[in-house]
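Entry 14. Structure prediction run on the chain below.
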Amino acid sequence: MSEQLFYLGSHALRNNRETSLQTISCASHKYMTVTGLIQHSGAGGLFTFSPPLLRSLSKLSIMVDKHMKSIKAQKLLMPSLCPLKIWKKSGRDLVLKDELMTLNDQSGAKFCLSPTFEEMVTFLVANSNVLSSQLPIALYQIGPKFRDEPRPKHGLLRCREFTMKDMYSFHGDKNNCLNFYNETRECYKSFFDAIGLKVGQAVVEVEAPSGAMGGSVSHEFHVLADIGEDTLNKCSKCDSFYHPEVHRKCPNCTSSDSTQHSAIEVGHTFILGQKYSQVFNCIVKDPKKNKNIITPEMGCYGLGLSRILAAYIEQFFDKMETRDEINFLWNKELSPYNLSLVLPKTGNKEQLKAEEMLSFLTNFGESELNELIIDDREEIFIGKKLTDAKFMGSPFIIVLGRLLSDAQPAFELINRATGTTQIIDESDFLSTLKNLI
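Output returned:
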């Protein structure tokens, strides 16, 4: 067994108590700081992801891959360091000049750290000799994006480097582009539902302005949260949400009676039309008809993955008072570990029986144990370990404690989602683990 892979040593749950929480007004920032999920990296808006949070981000990325596969999108990876001349060609070097991070190489050539990739992906397709029979094409990536944020704050909600899934589609005509656009919107809704952010409850979709991206149609996905810096209107008559910059009245029932709600933007989709394909002379040829040349209609579709993790916490973590009063539950699709195994303090009479039960873990492969984290801190009592396990948000907790010393040894299985605790005979330990991991 690899301790580094799934064991929780005393060093791993060391709370970041040195950080002053008085200056942090955001629940997700506080939670991630206290648990050590993120660590400030010496400059505003830059954070190191701890191994557990990186696991959550990896799970989220896998969930994205699953949903992108359902709409036949293909994954690629483009360089974050892009020639500035490509941005100059589209004119967005000026449109986004306040956000664009630029630098020169040793020869004096100018580059930027891309906040988005419309230019680069269009340049790619324009130089790939794509044929009309290959359309539609949908290309996406998951990776870092950079924005020169003047006032980074709220942890991962507004930072300079963030992880984003961005996708771009190319189509032979407007109808095909619109159909794929709507298919992707439905795919996004399915994705949010799958990670526990239910559409219509935690997440709402609204028609939105296109902004610097350009194009004719745009929609945003927002997580409702008090800390959110966007404002949406909610119709008092039909409960529909809408963007005040796009609609003065409810687009569903035309009522002008509404309430305002704070929200966090976590996804954005656009129909770009030929805005970029024309600029980069991106044409698609029909080999059967030499004169049939198509300038593709384009769409783009973004999801802020690191922001989604923070927004999830904001949605289900309304406030953060003192450390010991807080329980938190990750959705199983986001949780760093789905099962926490709490061991007795070293020297307790239950220790030998617990060690005997741990020997059963040799029946599992490394991949199976990947969802298990074991709290083996020697000097910490079980009560404190249990509090920490709840605080870290694992959906299931197994406690190897005082029940091991009974005439008929047993252990506790806590289901965080239902709030129930089962007493299970030690002979069923192996089968219980198999069901959970």
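Residues 283 and 295 are 5 Å apart (CA to CA).
Filed with the rest of this week's runs.
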